[in-house]
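Hi L.,

You mentioned the student needs an example of a multi-chain input paired with its predicted structure. This one should do, with 1129 residues in total across all chains.
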Amino acid sequence: MRRNLWLGAALSSLVVLAALVSFVWTPFDHAAMNIPEKLQTPNAVHWLGTDHFGRDIFSMIMVGARTSIAVALVAVGIGMALGVPLGLAAAARKGSWLDELIMRGNDLIFAFPSLVIAILITAVFGAGAVNAIIAIGIFNIPVFARITRGAALSLWEREFILAARVAGKSAARISAEHILPNVANLLIVQGTIQFSLGILAEAALSYVGLGAQPPTPSWGRMLADAQTLVSLAPHLALVPGVAIILTVLGLNLLGDGLRDYLDPRLRVART
Amino acid sequence: MMTDRQSRDRGQDMTLLSIENLTLSIHGTPILRDVSLSIAPGEIHAVTGESGSGKSMTALAIMQLLPNGAQATGHITLGGTDILTATEAQMCAIRGRDVGMVFQEPMTALNPVKTIGDQVMETILIHKALPPDRARARAAEILARVGLPPDRFPLSRYPHELSGGQRQRVVIAMAIALRPKLLIADEPTTALDVTTQAQILDLLKGLVAEDGMGMLMITHDLAVVADMAHRITVMRTGEVVESASTPDLLANMQHPYTKMLFSASTHRVDLPARPAPTPLLEVRGVTRDYRLPRRHLFRDHGTYRAVSDVSFTIDRGERLGLVGESGCGKSTLTRAILGLEQVQEGQILLGGQPVFTGHRPNLAMRRRMQVVFQDPYGSFNPRHRVERLITEPFHLLPDPPKGVAREEAIAEALKAVGLRPEDAGKYVHEFSGGQRQRIAIARALIIRPDLILFDEAVSALDVSVRAQILDLLADLCRQYDLTYLFISHDVSVVRSVTDRVLVMQAGRIVEQGPTEQVLTNPQHPYTQTLIAAAPVLPDLGAA
Amino acid sequence: MLRYALKRLVSLIVSLAVASLVIFFVIEVAPGDPAQFMLGMNAQPDTVAALRAELGLDVPKWERYLNWVGGMLTGDFGTSYTYRTPVADMVADRLWVSLPLAIYALTISTLIAFPAGIYAAARRGRAGDVAVMGATQLGVAIPNFWFAMMLVLVFAINLRWFSAGGFAGWDKGLWAGLHSLTLPAIALALPQAAILARVMRSSLLDILGEDFMRTARAKGLSRRQALWRHGVRNALIPVLTIIGLQFAFLMAGAIIIEQVFYLPGLGRLIFQSISARDLIVVESVVMLLVFAVIVVNFLVDLAYAAVDPRLRSRT
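Structure written out for the whole complex:
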């Protein structure tokens, strides 16, 4: 099953690489319109063809990877930075009002589908990449809080935590020293999965016009632009779609692979 | 081949099950080698041994419920059928009808979403032994037979509404519903309290006697074995080391491993004399209540009294035992003494100072106490090295040793428990269960506490390892004048390592006194039940 | 059982109350005065004031909140700022598109996922399992709106089996309505089915490792009988949670899929309202979606109790 890990790692690094290279080089200027060369199918000059303004699709995909990764990564960061401490705190004070408050708050966020949060936020504060990040990030908080709390709770039952308490360590110190390192693997795996969900969410938001605004290229908006032309030039819709699928597939395979790779050791420690 | 088997069958008319030269490997790892044993109707055959001896795998091989990747050679013949060559469909017909099986863990052996009646009935229905309406009546009958009469335990009960012992009775009912010829019991009482264990063993004995079933009993507990088996087979690392009828084996053990196993089970350590009594820990009228979840919005939440008005004293240099069954409040009391939880009433004083001041544990007191837990696998952070693990209590010291002094303290603690100073750089997964328990003791010793609490510290260990750890305790008593509180459910262990004993039941201390006196001449009815229920090995010295 | 249901009901009401507060105050902080916006920048101050009074904007915030909530309880969702028609009317029409779509998709998703997950678990590690898992891995990665575009391209534009968009309406008969919702429902359902099948498989595999499965086999049940009689019902417990969560995703996902198929559902309503700054409509539609999600999760909680007797007897 190591194959999953390598395939996932290869696909993910390919996308990250494309995004990084786009800062210094793209085949064409991704924003340059060239009406005479519009709607070309893939060919030797324009490797993935051109859109209805004659822009080079390969270049747009490269730069679009930047947007996708940036939005999803920051959203995962927000989720981890807030969710993990909340989860640790809730587990350390299990059953207290703090735990209750954190968990009820989580339930509340879960009751709002992520897209509805995004709609609410953009309706009030306007569309844009930053608000998209906030909307996706907010939804990541309860995910990380919940998974951290669940794993931490079972660790708190373990005798080595009791031993640390007998050694006079505070809950905060035990959380940092014993709990966090033992849930790190789990968080890495979940982080990869949330990252891939972030890519999908960003694409959906941009598709309905609530994500990154022009001229910032994004895969979701490329799909929205392609929609009316889909019968005329199917490659306009195919290319960004395949880019999204490969990225998400790569990240999911990486997450699964990491879980298989990291878990056996955890299991050995547990039994 | 055919004539061979026929002649064997004729020659062993009285044999219900015969295993011949069973060799088993799982994914190429050898598990069993050349195991042979046989069981006659009405016979109880016990297979015993320490963990990794292959006794459970032998049982699963008879059921053909082995893990994936298992490869078996040899013969297992049950009532004329060779199990190893039987098809899966034939095995399905045999399981439940000809062989029933009882497992170790009654809490998880039943399907939580089906009623006990349905689960017992299923054995009958799956073999189409009776039509559904009669199967229901039969299930009620069987449940009554195992001690769950339908007027008190209706068929519509769910497993979670029953205690562990009652659930084990349901599992037994499922196994014997079709009066199988053979009953396999894999550690059937290991997960149960000693008084429940005695009842379940009586039930099993009665069933064998009345129905003329053969029974294969897998257990690690030699006292249980000696008490009920007609025949004993001792296994070690996948091989049979010795097999004989129970009286023969007890009177005349041949193999050194068998001898070691039996002597380790009755191992008595040689404790040094205790110094003159000066009180160290005083527990005065301690009561600990837990809040129960609020059952009604407008009513007050209830409380559960885990420890109720407990008082006792531990003198300096004294080795005190605390025995009781699960749920009696032993663990709660341990936590209260360690100052991990606040008590509702009473006081706990160490050397005259309270362990809990205000709402905070008293660190000055806590550094004078340490604890060793039960689970040699769960008591360490798997990510830290031994040196970091055993120095964790240094956190309690205002001025912990550093540099060379720290190295020396680590080396000394490791040497004291029979490990090498070089072990400091290893991770716990590199050690065996017994060695881990030594590391746990090193962690407790490193700050030279006045008092150590052993919370079921040897309960998870095999008998031979347990004997070594108990010897280590006696050694440490000589070297360091230890004072400890030894908490255990096992009366025989407490007997060997304590001077005085407390007996706890339902949150109260019901009896206390010098260990020998309490255990040989118990006064309180509960202590009497507890001691009567504990299976005891016959005195082998006399034999 | 009744006590359990009541307890869940209380928690449902609390969730709804808190959700309504959050939605109301998020909308409240929106910059700009709806009355001013509707009348344009050049409107006379007294005209604006009159409109504010008409829209009920001239009273304190907490009173507006109470009016809004009280109105919703009696079915009065207020009046659209833009269209000057009752929001309830606008929402009701659209709901008859979005809700059937979500239910249709959930049905397809469950019908595909259950057999696929059970099949894969029963054949763990063999070719069938690998194939199903590979397909779900791909399914999880596909954005549903892109999949919708591909369905349109193949089945509407090339094969002409379905129309590329629009909604026939229920008044033309159940079949016509379902027919125009079929492609959107498939687009919504397949990625969700992939997730659900994975959950079903892993949940079933967890159960297959439980002690009571071995007990069942010791009674003489075949692997298959044990799987169906003891495995599936226990495995349903975590699967139900996911179904509850998926309903939330389907309601939200429908918003986007409606854009692809030009369906006159809540999604189109919400985007039109956002661009017109018709915040009272946004407010009500969001509240309605959250209401649907909370109610579905309440039903899931009740379903738990039906599956798991341990919940029934507790409290």
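You could point out the following to them. Chain A touches chain B through 18 residues (CB under 8 Å). Residues 106 and 214 of chain A are 34 Å apart (CA to CA).

Best wishes,
N.
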